[in-house]
Write a structure and sequence with these properties.
This is Copper resistance protein. Helices cover about 20% and strands about 35% of the residues. The radius of gyration is 15 Å and the shape is globular.
């Protein structure tokens, strides 16, 4: 029954929003290289390790750290840990893309990501994202589960 509901949600979302739902900020036919904030990394190549903790302690939702400085062209392995008591996620993107995606998440709170720039974690679990930052700029990472970004789960990546 849940699978039928999930598939129906996907079909309705695809009809209503087109390819934007499947990959926010990413036009149909584009390769991952076209993303403003970079491309999926190669896990077999060396990467700088950046640890990020997702927390909801003391009623405050946040990422630790909430600012990361990266060199253009650098590949980063984000080692993620949800130390909280509820599910959290991280989505790398432009601020505009993440705000648009947050609107979609508010309409479809059970939406799960299958994108190389996003990872959802249950409480007390770990995960990884390997990403190569190919362009300079200021980018966003957020938890787009409804209410979490608004509660403080957002951060900035500065690529120089």
């Amino acid at each position: 029954m849940q699978l039928k509901r999930f598939l129906l949600t996907l079909m309705v979302g695809a009809i209503v929003t087109g390819p934007a739902l499947a990959s926010p900020g990413h036009n149909s036919g584009e390769g991952h290289d076209d993303r403003a904030y970079g491309e999926p990394g190669n896990p077999k190549k060396p990467a700088r390790i950046v640890q990020i903790t997702m927390s909801d302690a003391d009623g405050k939702m946040r990422f630790i750290p909430d600012r990361i400085d990266i060199k253009r062209g650098e590949q980063v392995k984000f080692v993620l840990r949800n130390s909280g008591e509820i599910d959290h996620e991280i989505v790398l993107g432009t601020l505009d893309d993440n705000l648009k995606h947050a609107e979609e998440m508010a309409k479809n709170p059970d939406m799960e990501h299958d994108d190389p720039n996003a990872k959802r974690l249950a409480p007390n679990t770990k995960g990884e994202i390997v990403w190569k930052f190919t362009k300079a700029g200021e980018f966003d990472f957020s938890c787009l589960i409804p209410g979490h970004r608004e509660a403080g789960m957002t951060g900035t990546i500065v690529v120089k």
